Amino acid sequence: MAGQRLSDEILERLQPCLVLEDNSIVLLDLEQSLIESGFTRLHTVSTIAQAERTVAAHPIRSAILDFRINTATSVEIALRLAETGAVLVFLTGYGAHLNVPKALAHVQILSKPADAAAVIQALAAALGD
Known about the structure:
By secondary structure, this protein is of the alpha/beta class.
């Protein structure tokens, strides 16, 4: 799917999109793949504090969240976004069996290294259509 443009309808429902990832290479790869797929409203951040400021300032409709950022997790950000109806995907280097709150049980968890196309496909699939 990376390099293949998503439909305008799907893009409208997924934007603006937040990407929270503390590995700069992974972050750049995801950003480039999202742009190639048609995303024009992206917020890429590498810390929880940056993510919190972004969520407070923008009506985020979807997010790709690295589960563990340094010694913290992105669970609180995910819970805030889930309350607004945002579409979420977790990425993790710790295996696909994470202990997440029940309110996030529906969120797909992808293990790193995850192909950017698979991440975008999971985000679009989470729309539930």
